[in-house]
Specification:
single chain; alpha+beta; 2 domains; six-stranded antiparallel β-barrel; 61% helix
Length: 484
C-alpha cells in the first residue's frame, strides 16, 4: 500500500501540472446549457463562480459560454450543484470546462477538504459499527462460532485430502473460516496464522506453499463472509433507504466467488510443480453430516428468492438480524446486555482506528480525481467495465480492493456518500467490498508467518477469485436490486 499511496499522490501532482480544467457533462437547449458539476454531491465539492467563463464542446466543436447562475438541487434525496450557462452552442449533449476550475487549484482545495470530511465520515460510522460488532459479540459468546465450524467441517474434509481429519491444522482452518463467515475478522486472523503454522508442519519443502496452503488462502480471499456488517453500517450512516439491500447480493456473490476460488486452486495445482505433501487416508464423509450446511445454503437461497419476488422482504433483514442475534444469545443463556456492551466497545475502537487510513486514501483519491488522472483512467478502462456491466466509477475500488482493506473500505464509503447509498454504484461497491478480500495483504501476512517464499499458484488463484467476485457482484446487484 505504501507504493500505491505514493504513486497516486505523485501522479496526481504530475497530472495537475499539465492538465487544464476537468470536464463536466451537460446539455444545451436554446441559448442555455445546464451542467451538473461533478463531485458536488460528496466530500469533493467544487462550485464555480457566477459570471465566470467556460468552454462548451458539442459534436467536436467548441463554443465560449458565461456562467449565469449556480444552485443546489435535490433529486432522489441526493443533493447536487447545477450551473446554468449562456452560450451560442448548438443543442445536444455537451462537455463543459470552467475557466476558473484549473486543476492545481482544485487539487489543493479538495485535498484539504477531503481530510476535513474524513472525520465526519468516520463519526457517521461509529454508531452503526458499534451496534453490529456488539451483536456479533453476542453471537460469538453464544457459541455461534462453534456451530458454524461443525457445519463446514465435513466439506473441508473433502477439500483438503492431504490434511488428516484430526490434525490441529484442520481445527484451525475450520475456526478461521467460521469466524470469517460471521464477519469476525479480528478473531479470524489468529486462527488463520495458526492454521498456516500447522499446515507447514506437514510440508516437506519448507519455504514452498503446499496445495492445502494455497486452497486455504483462496477460501480466505474469496470473501467468504456472509454478514457484511461493515458495509451495512456505511450505508446506514449515509442515510440509505435500505442499508441491508446488499445482504442478499453479498450472500450470492460470496457463494459464487468461493466456488470459483476453490475450482481455480484445484485447477492451477495441476499445472505447477508437484505438491510438497501427500494425500492421507480418512473416513468417508457421511451424507447426514452435510445436512446443517445444506440447510444453511437453502435458507440463504430462500432469502434471495424472497427479496427478488418481493422487495419489501428486504425491510425485514436488519430488524430480523438484530432480533435473531439477541434471541440466540438469550436462548443460549448469555448475558446479552453485558456481552453486547463489551463488543460495542470494540466496535467503537474499530471505527475510530480506521481514521488515519480513511484520511490517507480519501486525500489521495481526491487529488487523483481533480488532477484529471481519474478521468483519463476511467475513460481508458470504461469499455472493459461497460462490457461486463460495471459502472466505471467503481473501477478504482476494483483495483484497490486486493491491495488495501482499509483503503477499499474508505473508498466504498466515499462512493456511497457521493452517489447516494441506494444508487447502483453504491450497491455494486458495497457488494464488491463484502465479497472480495485484500488478496496481497492476506498472502503477505499468512505466508510471511511461516516463511513461505515460493507462492506457486497462490497469486494466480487469488486474482482469479478477485475477478470472479467483482463480476459476480455486478451480476447479482443487477439481478436482485436492479441498475436504476
Amino acid at each position: 500500500m505504501n507504493i500505491v499511496f505514493t504513486a497516486i499522490v505523485l501522479l496526481s501532482f504530475g497530472f495537475a501540472a499539465f492538465t487544464g480544467s476537468p470536464a463536466h457533462e451537460g446539455t444545451v437547449r436554446g441559448v442555455e446549457a445546464t451542467v451538473v458539476i461533478k463531485g458536488s454531491t460528496g466530500p469533493a465539492s467544487a462550485v464555480v463562480n457566477v459570471g465566470g467563463t467556460a468552454m462548451i464542446e458539442v459534436g467536436g466543436t467548441r463554443w465560449p459560454a458565461k456562467v449565469l447562475k449556480v444552485e443546489k438541487q435535490t433529486e432522489g434525496g441526493l443533493e447536487r450543484t447545477v450551473a446554468t450557462l449562456q452560450t451560442l452552442a448548438k443543442d445536444g449533449p455537451a462537455r463543459v470546462r470552467f475557466d476558473d476550475q484549473y486543476a492545481m487549484k482544485l487539487v489543493s482545495t479538495q485535498a484539504l477538504l477531503s481530510a476535513k470530511n474524513s472525520m465526519t465520515l468516520v463519526l457517521d460510522l461509529v454508531g452503526a459499527m458499534t451496534l453490529f460488532l456488539g451483536l456479533m459479540k453476542v453471537v460469538e459468546a453464544a457459541g455461534g462460532l462453534d456451530m458454524v465450524a461443525k457445519a463446514i467441517r465435513p466439506v473441508l474434509a473433502l477439500l483438503f485430502p492431504d490434511v488428516p481429519a484430526r490434525h490441529p491444522a484442520m481445527g484451525a482452518i475450520v475456526m478461521n473460516i467460521a469466524a470469517n463467515v460471521l464477519g469476525l475478522g479480528n478473531a479470524a486472523t489468529p486462527f488463520g496464522i495458526r492454521a498456516m503454522e500447522e499446515l507447514d508442519k506437514l510440508n516437506k519443502e519448507k519455504g514452498t506453499a503446499t496445495n492445502a496452503m494455497v486452497l486455504f488462502l483462496a477460501i480466505n480471499t474469496s470473501g467468504v463472509a456472509v454478514l457484511p456488517t461493515g458495509v451495512m453500517a456505511v450505508r446506514a450512516a449515509a442515510g440509505g433507504h435500505d442499508p441491508a439491500a446488499i445482504f442478499p447480493t453479498t450472500l450470492a456473490a460470496s457463494f459464487v466467488n468461493t466456488v470459483i476460488a476453490v475450482l481455480a486452486a484445484k485447477a492451477f495445482s495441476r499445472l505447477v510443480s508437484p505438491n510438497p505433501t501427500e494425500p492421507v487416508e480418512r473416513e468417508p464423509v457421511r451424507a447426514f453430516e452435510l445436512v446443517p450446511l445444506l440447510g444453511a445454503v437453502g435458507a440463504m437461497a430462500a432469502l434471495m428468492v424472497a427479496v427478488k419476488m418481493n422487495p419489501v422482504a428486504g425491510d425485514w433483514i436488519v430488524p430480523g438480524l438484530i432480533a435473531g442475534m439477541v434471541a440466540f444469545g438469550a436462548i443460549r443463556k448469555v448475558k446479552v446486555y453485558e456481552v453486547f456492551i463489551e463488543g460495542a466497545r470494540d466496535g467503537f475502537a474499530s471505527a475510530t482506528r480506521i481514521l488515519p487510513y480513511v484520511v490517507a486514501i480519501l486525500v489521495a483519491v481526491a487529488m487523483f480525481r481533480w488532477s484529471g488522472g481519474m478521468e483519463l483512467f476511467v475513460r481508458g478502462l470504461a469499455p472493459i467495465a461497460e462490457a461486463v456491466g460495471m459502472p466505471p466509477e467503481v473501477l478504482p475500488l476494483a483495483l484497490l480492493r486486493p491491495l488495501s482493506g482499509s483503503g477499499a473500505y474508505a473508498l466504498t464509503a466515499e462512493l456511497t456518500k457521493t452517489y447516494g447509498p441506494d444508487s447502483f454504484i453504491a450497491n455494486v461497491a458495497g457488494t464488491m467490498q463484502g465479497t472480495t478480500e485484500t488478496t496481497f495483504y492476506v498472502l503477505a501476512v499468512y505466508f510471511g508467518a511461516v516463511g513461505v517464499r515460493r507462492y506457486r499458484h497462490a497469486v494466480a488463484t487469488g486474482l482469479a477469485s478477485d475477478i470472479s467476485g467483482m463480476l459476480a457482484s455486478v451480476f447479482f446487484v443487477r439481478w436482485l436490486i436492479g441498475s436504476e
